[in-house]
Amino acid sequence: MIGSLADLLRRAWRHPSGRWGTLVLLLLALASLLLPPFLADPAAMPDVVAGATPPSAAHPFGTDPLNRDILARLVTGGRISLAIAGLAVLVSLTIGTLVGLAAGYAGGWIDALVMRLVDAALAVPRLFVLLLLLVVWERIPLGALILVLGTTGWFATSRLVRGEVLRLRREPFVEASAALGARPWRTIARHLLPNAAGPVLVAATLGVGDVILLEAGLSFLGLGVQLPTPSWGGMVLEARPLLVSAPWTALFPGGAIVATVLGVNLVGDALQAALDPRSA
Amino acid sequence: MSAPRLEVTDLAASYVAGGFFRSGRRRVYAVNGVSFALGAGETLGLVGESGSGKTTLARVILRLTPASGGQVRFEGTDLLSLDREGLRAIRRRMQVVFQDPYSSLDPRMRVGETVAEGLLIHRLVPRREAPARVAELLDEVGLPPALAERFPHELSGGQRQRIGIARALGVDPSLVICDEPVSALDVSVQAQVLALLATLQRTRGLSFLFIAHDLAVVRQIAHRIAVMYFGRIVELAPADELVANPRHPYTVALISAVPEPDPDRRGERIVLEGDPPAPTLLPRGCPFAPRCFHARKDARCEREHPELRPVAGTLVACHHAEVDARPLTPYP
């Protein structure tokens, strides 16, 4: 049996992959959050003629073709990439939870209709929808990009929440609450949401990895974060012609993407394992 | 005699089950024409095998499942016609204790929060005073007040069931429906919980509708016992009378399944063959006829449905209730 949410987090932390994943993510997040003020201006081009220079004391990760400091761009881009991923997942989590709750709680034809629509939406590849939207909407602002990523990512969450609600509604403790005279909102807030939180947390964690990859992919195609603004995907795009002559220009942003997705998936795996009653 | 606390008249619950396509759907008759009355401070035991409609009956009375016909009067109020707010108000007077002490408590809530839930829903005490009231309730069900800080998974089955009882008592009900409250517990813990329920009945004047599949448990606590089969009451009698002189063959079979410690009084266990009819079909005759071992079973049993009728101080739904249903051979 699952205890409290704190208990779940504690068990996830005890899982080795949970600890490693958390450390990796913490390192990336702290670097992005704290380092930028101490580093060079990510837009500064001290010596444009020199172009891409390999890592040195002045530029620990080297410079890009425009002689901008890669470390400074990496941590500034990290702020943007991580913020996009976090906010987009927050958007899709909110929509997915609300839709799933509504469908699961209402039941009947509302549930059937909403879930068939979700099935239909899930059948369309997300990347295809995003490409279509972004090709039409040139030079998309950051806020809009977050909304677009968030509103295309909630379908699976809504199905998950709806399933949890259907399962929980049959639980005697939920019926006992109704038999005590609890109004629906009370049952939802006190019993349904807290008990559905575990699986939703796992889905959200894994969702962060998806969005990081999507955003990087879109930015690499020039459709995501728009160019002077640094982002990890955009940095790889700019490094593409130099893959052989200046590999460090692609290596560091690429490595950051891989590390983040890996960290997020490790944490997700650990949460999933902690949620499994058999591991208790 | 004053009006009974709970009066159920010709209650029916059926629902449509089955597939996405119309052709796959079937109407399931879970409860069919059930009538009984329950007085103040009385315990009515409800026994029957799984699927006999006991739990559905309880859920319909609690209005957790809709009824498809009949009437339920509780303390003079027609329960089935209440609107949402009227229902919320009356839930204070009518509570439930569930079978499974594991799933009947929210795993993410501290015991104190669970017990306080009803108090806060009905604003019976100011939020500040809730912990003190919770401590009193825990004490009343024989638990130390310190348990309020624990989570359900830290407690034993018996402790959890007591918490379920404390939660029900919090809103000060007059009727508690106990749906197999001790079936999931060890025998020694069963006895303790049954003793607690008996004490609470005395001190609070509670009425119990006590559901169980185990006749040995029900006869310990019930004043009268109703036997359900296939969604109907087939026999209703005072507890001692029902056990001493069962009149319906199904009751006879149930009693034969109760272990008897005295070898001289031990009869042969009757093992019923076959299953009850499918709940989607309403047989024309007696629903028990296909499994009946009554010596007088005849063509009428297959043809004509036996109504519940008074026979020597009990109510029985059997065409041949006047004749002892107990098989002769195993008795020396």
Counted by DSSP, the helix tally of chain A is 11
Q: What number is the mean pLDDT of chain A?
A: 86
CATH homology-level superfamily of chain A: MetI-like
**Helix percentage of chain A:** over 70%
What is the CATH architecture annotation of chain B? 3-Layer(aba) Sandwich
Description:
The complex is a heterodimer of chains A (280) and B (332). In chain A, 71% of the residues lie in helices and 0% in strands. The N and C termini of chain A lie close together (7 Å). Chain A has 280 residues and is mainly α. Chain A is built from 11 helices and no strands. Chain A has a single domain (5-38, 69-279), classed as MetI-like (MetI-like fold), CATH 1.10.3720.10. Chain A has helices at residues 5-14, 16-34, 70-106, 108-123, 126-136, 142-151, 155-169, 172-179, 184-220, 232-239, 248-275. In chain B, the strands form 2 sheets. Chain B has an 8-stranded mixed sheet, with helices on both faces. A 4-stranded antiparallel sheet of chain B has the order 2-1-4-5. In chain B, α4 packs across α5 (157-170). Chain B is globular. The N and C termini of chain B lie far apart (44 Å).
Topology summary:
The complex is a heterodimer of chains A (280) and B (332).
Chain A: H1 5-14, H2 16-34, H3 70-106, H4 108-123, H5 126-136, H6 142-151, H7 155-169, H8 172-179, H9 184-220, H10 232-239, H11 248-275
Chain B: E1 6-17, E2 26-38, E3 43-47, H1 54-61, E4 69-74, E5 77-78, H2 84-90, E6 94-97, H3 111-121, H4 130-140, H5 157-170, E7 175-179, H6 187-204, E8 207-212, H7 215-221, E9 224-229, E10 232-238, H8 239-244, H9 249-256, H10 299-303, E11 309-311, E12 314-316
Parallel strand pairs in B: 3-8, 3-9, 6-7, 7-8
Antiparallel strand pairs in B: 1-2, 1-4, 4-5, 9-10, 10-12, 11-12
Task: Please name the defining characteristics of this protein.
heterodimer; A: 280 residues; mainly alpha; MetI-like fold; elongated; B: alpha/beta; Rossmann fold; eight-stranded mixed β-sheet; four-stranded antiparallel β-sheet; 29% helix; 22% strand
